[in-house]
Amino acid sequence: MAKKDRIREALNLLWRFGPTTRNFLATRLSLNPAIISNLVRLLQDRNLIVKIGNATSTGGRKAELIDVNPSLRTLIGVEFSTRGLFAATARLRGDLQNKQVVPFMRDESQDELIDKISSLVEGQIAWLDKEGINRENALIGIALSGMVDQTNGVSLSFPRLENWSNVSLKQIIEDRCKIPVTLGSHMHGATVVEHLFGNARGARDALFVQAGPGIGLGMVLNGRVYRGYRGLGGEFGHTQVLDNGPLCYCGSRGCLESLASDEAVLARAHKGVKNAINTDLHKLRREDGSLTTGHIFKAASDGDRFALNIVEEVGYYLGVGIANLINLMAPEVIVLGGTMLSDNELLLEVVTRTIKSKVLRRLQDEVEIKTSAFGKEAGLRGAVTLAGLEFFGPQPGEKKPDDLTDESVDIDGTQSPWNGIAKDFPEMEETG
Length: 432
Ligand SMILES: [Zn+2]
Known about the structure:
The chain is α/β, with parallel strands linked by helices and about 425 residues long. It has helices at about 5-15, 20-30, 35-45, 110-130, 170-175, 185-195, 255-260, 260-275, 280-285, 295-300, 305-330, 345-360, 360-365, 380-390, 420-425, and strands at about 50-55, 65-70, 75-80, 85-90, 95-100, 140-145, 150, 155, 165, 180-185, 205-210, 215-220, 225, 335, 370. Helix 2 crosses helix 3 (about 35-45), helix 6 crosses helix 14 and helix 8 (about 260-275) packs antiparallel against helix 11 (about 305-330).
């Protein structure tokens, strides 16, 4: 194997599993201790990795822990989702710093929204300068709701934003900020980070369902995050669950999203309050008469019958949809997240109960139901991780660098994950 490929693979393993020991690298790379020692020395000489202390051990010589040098790359993440517009900066695996949020309205023009995104990025770059972090080493990841052409860096559509279509956001932000940008769908980023570092870590087959303003699905099949042709799969929210149900913004009726998104919850609650149904929601409303999903879940946990019915109904629809997915795909783990399913025991209980009652008995004990490791931060952590992946290389189960040939079709934008390193360390081109 070429030396540069070995270096890349070692860095990828350290990023995914670090801090870790030389022994771990030796096992994963099937190399003998002498070669590993040489490789580790080489990585240290080039400042690619750092020693960070010793592993705890019970007697004997303690194993030294090594990790990727955290100043190798700085990751700027932007989440532009139905939940809001957020940005933060992270080192390596995504502990978020300098979190920012700006509101946006659905009737804003495309140019106004692009300006908001680039000023968020500029805010993060200004913070790097202030902290003395080299902006030359920064990478940007942007995770968006809706459909994204990751290969070409184009946001094709955004739910309920009529003024937004076919935005070449990668190019626009790169031109303005002079930093490489990776564009991906919000759901894809969230799934990648859950699979790499979260509660689907190491799973061969996993599903990740997010419920909030929209309802999305991420899939890990055969150890690899799967996105469908051109990355357009996973539109779980637009599967039909009720004939002649409410009209969905996609144009169909009875989509899961029209019945179980937070918007659907609010629509039902407002209707009930307007019809003077006996509920505490009258008292909980804000001054302008509006409600949040937080009000509804609060009233429900306080025993409000009307609010409880809403939670039961929403949880039922979500549970039925998810049970269908489980029967279809037989994942080993299903992760539940999104704003509505994060820190929401009440709804999770209904969803889990419904799943258990609808999943084939044979599968009931096979699938583990977990909540997202990153909760409401999953989108932003996903954005940061998409940028990291661009440098540290393929997601587990993806093609190794050796398998990447010029003919490989890059439908899902994974063609050149190693370019970053090759560009920065041209001397690695030698073989050894
Ligand atoms: Zn729909």
